[in-house]
User: Fold these one by one.
Assistant:
Number 1:
Amino acid sequence: MTLEQLNDLSASAAQAEFLKCCGSRVWAQAMAEARPFANREQAFARAEGVAALLRQEDWLEAFRAHPKIGEKKAAAGQSEQEKNWSAQEQSGLAAASSDAVAQLAERNREYQDRFGFIFIVCASGKSSEEMLTILNDRLNNGPHAELAVAAGEQRKITRLRLEKLLNQ
């Protein structure tokens, strides 16, 4: 999709496209309303500006749009495109040992029990060992700090997906 095509979509169609990038309806609606964008950089800047205004419940909604690391299905429904993007982003797990996958699954459960949401990390280019190290380190955070870290990771994912959306 080109930026021009995105600008020309109806508000509801644009919101659906933006939801593929970030599962927060507030974010997607604000992005749809901010069109037309003069260029990609303006779209990326607006994406960051809107993200800076999101509240905790908006972030939690965005997190639910992702599968857990090592899994394929998100708590919230995903489009085929989102499933493909998640699979690409988690491709570092393809070479993971069964032990590493089991450790990730166990630590994911501990993380969700501790924080109340799934472990979010921008997994692109990361191996299973790297993700496990990050997950173990982040389990030491307090709840408020961890929400901020997870939101930062969501912002990275959103940026990558917005780039992918505009490069189709």
Number 2:
Amino acid sequence: MDSIFRRFQFHSFPSDDALARAVAGNFVDRLTIARDESRFFSIALSGGRIAAAFLGAAANLVIQRGGLGELTHFFWADERCVPPNDAESNYRLANSLLLAPLLVPPSQVHRIPGEAEPAQAASCAAAEYARVMAANGVAPPRLDLVLLGMGEDGHIASLFPREPTETTADPLSFRAVVGPKPPPNRITMGYPTLATAREVWVLVSGSGKEIALKEALSSAGSSPLARLIQMRDTTEVFSAVSLPG
């Protein structure tokens, strides 16, 4: 078997809803354990079409399980350079479906300030990430869980194809990028920040992604998702998209 297959676990689902419910269950299991152990737990969220179904399902389950812990903190793997109330904002999506329903205190929410000038927004996000990790004794900084989607071109967060390969090693935890999709100005976590997370879950849904997914799971893959998988010991891929034969 191709060696890259030892670097990920592939979970197949018959529909987007089934995927969202299953991942929400796994997600809330992690949150509940951390809460019951009174343990700091850090999460990075993303946007994308599947995110809305996942976030809504997760909120309902958290409420059923008795709420979040006081040491659960939320970051974002990427953000569009828009105000937090803009329809394109990843923060707005998460806030409306997960954070606000759960009454998560602002002190546990660390959004990327997309309304700021891009370089400043990236710098602020990086400083806040470092501050929260240091305050909770996590050195070097390391996320517990990252949730990502995948685009039709294999992009993850706001890491797009055709970036120079040296960006894989860029040490910045957050950086400003100009992407090929509107709105073009974005802030993204860099590859090393994503690669060092304890767990990375990639949720893949929607039509037109079959070829990109197969390429990402190949040892010869060069897409952003392929790069991330190759940098990690294991990555969990949850897919409502069938792999081509």
Number 3:
Amino acid sequence: MSKWSQRAVEYPWLIRNLSIIDKGSLVLDVGCAESLLSHELIAKKLKVVGIDIRNYPFKDKRMVFLRRNIQDTKLQDNLFDAIIIVSTIEHIGLEAYGQSIKDTDGDIKALEELKRILKPQGIIIITTPYVRDNPLKIDRFERYYRQRLKELINGMKVVKEDYFYPYKAKKRLLWIKLQREEVDKLSFHKGPGLACIILKNA
């Protein structure tokens, strides 16, 4: 399974759920360097700021791009109406993607910073690989298990959570939408599932 098969689930899910964000809202696209998601957000009449520690080659003149560390944005409190993090949070703190120092709590620190720059009652939308509590090959930087995900979103209200399980049928890869309780009963020997979560700031 490639990351692009995962994107085929994440992006349509995100677009379907963008109605939770009012048109004209100021939105932060976290980890935008290899994505055209910011352009989709602009097309939905949202004001977009993209942020990444790497350069962003697809910059649209209607967006602002910040080349900064998401753990220390140096932005003011309560700035954004919404923040979108598509398959990025699990990489924060990894010695890759332009990061040179490993920090096992990098994701927690990043989300705390994001909550700081998010308005009260603002929305965070996260998608990330998910493997329930499978003790095999757990690596926080590649996929989340239930306890770590719980720690990550602690203190925020869960507005919506959808989980997808990869099922290989002959030569096709199908993503089946399930409740978390259903996903948590399954094994993940063929690869991680996907958690898609909408959160509201306190």
Number 4:
Amino acid sequence: MDSLLDEIPEDVGSTIVIAVKSENAPASPVNGQQSQKRPVYDPAIAYVLEFCTVLALRDTDTVELFGKRVVDALQAVLRDVGSYHPILVARATFYLFRLLQFSYVRLPTATNHAV
């Protein structure tokens, strides 16, 4: 699991780009051109996140062992949505909800053991 999660680049969201405007360039986009570049979809990141989620959701033991690390990786994507493609953000959100649902439905809670 650690090897898979290490494949996710940590520097995607931390890249700082400084744009310098020249004196001759128009201030606004011309003819409907977009001035911002959208993040490129990287299927490798989506694959790693999905594979880690599937492995973690095998049973309650694997959720307890790997769930936190997978949730941390998914939350890292969701904390910096501007750096990732919208499809990857949507998939990360779905995987996070799946882990949350599984842990809510299947894992015993502390209140059940206290009774």
